[in-house]
Structure formats: C-alpha cells, structure tokens
Amino acid sequence: MTSYRVRIAEDAADREACFAVRKQVFVVEQQVPEDVEYDAYDASALHVLAEGDQGPLGTGRLLYGPGVLHKTGDADTGSLGRLAVTSAARGLGVGAALVRAIEEAARERGLTAVDLHAQTQALGFYERLGYEAYGPEFQDAGIEHRAMRRALP
Prior knowledge:
Order of helices and strands: EHHEEEHEHEE
Strand order of the largest sheet: 1-2-3-4-5-7-6
CATH class: Alpha Beta
Shape: globular
Number of domains: 1
Helix content: 25-40%
Pfam family, one: Acetyltransf_10
Largest sheet: 7 strands, mixed
Radius of gyration: 14 Å
CATH architecture: 3-Layer(aba) Sandwich
Keywords: Acyltransferase, Transferase
InterPro entries: Acyl_CoA_acyltransferase, Bact_Acetyltransf, GNAT_dom
Strand content: 35-45%
Number of strands: 7
Number of helices: 4
Organism: Streptomyces violascens
CATH superfamily: Gcn5-related N-acetyltransferase (GNAT)
Protein name: Acetyltransferase
Distance between the termini: 30 Å
C-alpha cells in the first residue's frame, strides 16, 4: 500500500501540484474544457493536497466566506469541490482522506455544514462519508451531477 499524507496547500508550488492533479483527472481523463475547470474561485479557495513518495496523488478545495455563492445560501456552509485523485492512487483511501481534511478545515473556520456537486457516478462514495443528495440531477461540464450536503458534527 502506498503511504501518503494530506495537508493544506501552503504556497504557489503546492497549488500548482493541485492544479496538475486536476488537469490530469478532469481535463485529460474526463475531457472537461480547461477554461471550465479553472475559475476565479481558485485564487481564494483553500486547497488540500494529498502526496506520496511519487508526488501529488489528489486534491480538493473548500470555498467559504464573503463573496462565495453557497449552494444552500447559508453563510455557515462551505462548498467542497474539485476533488480529484490520480488513477494510480484510487482505491487507497485518498479521496476519503481529502474529504475529511476539507471538513476539518471547514470546522476550524466555524462552518457547520459542507455542500458539494457530485458526479452521479460518485454518489455512493459521498453517501458512505455521510453526505445526502438533494434536488434533481443536472449537467455541469457535460457530466451529470447531484447536489449533496453534510452537517458537520
């Protein structure tokens, strides 16, 4: 089993590692247009990075605070997004570790819930982590999604 650690991205090099994982997973594998994958929220988001001996393995981000349009409209709700794990690291628990790190960062910032837009093929993953789907399916970047939410204990 590959060992890895998950931490908050601290500098420009860490953010570039996060973006490299997102490019591989979303742009290359899922064919999401690059101009859709990267957005204005990247500059102010809290990025989380999973890395192992071989380099970056996964990433995700948390949006919160003034200027963020929360999916629920609640100022005490953060938005988890851009969760991506490299193909080599899938099945090792990296995705779950990233979600838990983002939830912990949300708690530390006084947030009481996290919402997200999950690709429908990933609904079971998020349900196992305590998220509940709500609302109808919708398309984002040509991929079916559902909104999900979890109150933070």
